[in-house]
Fold this sequence. Notes:
The protein is mostly helical. The chain has 6 helices and no strands.
Amino acid sequence: MQDKIDLLEGLKRAPGILSEFVKSIPEERIFSRRGEGFWTIAEHVSHLAEVQPMLLDRFQRFMDEDRPEFVPCIPEDGGDEPVRTVYSSVSDALDNFALCRNKEIDLLESARDIMWHKRATHPEYESYSLYILARHTLMHDFWHMYRIEELWLTRDAYLTKLE
């Protein structure tokens, strides 16, 4: 299952990639808001750190439950979203992201192959498994990293406006 190995490697590398990337951005850009409805770079970093405990819990539930049932994590409605953590610095958020990710990796590396295919229910998705959650987690990391890069480097006329 080579793609599982690749997913784990991507998940392992994401904290380092994010940390080095954020360190390359001028500090004044980290907290600047590009416009109404746009998150700051610091808010993207904080969000990535904030959702890790929820993701770790979901990974653990795949290990512990026969057929876990999940509810959507939609930040706007509070749902299954973790309590927002106020970080004293972007550095603290990056450290917490890495710390929690290491716990997730330890858990995922201990999962037997059968666990990777275990099915769960999630109202947002037609199919949901540990494998899908791991892949989704990696894509979520890199979506936010892409958005950070866009907020940092893209000229206003080309900036993607999310509804």
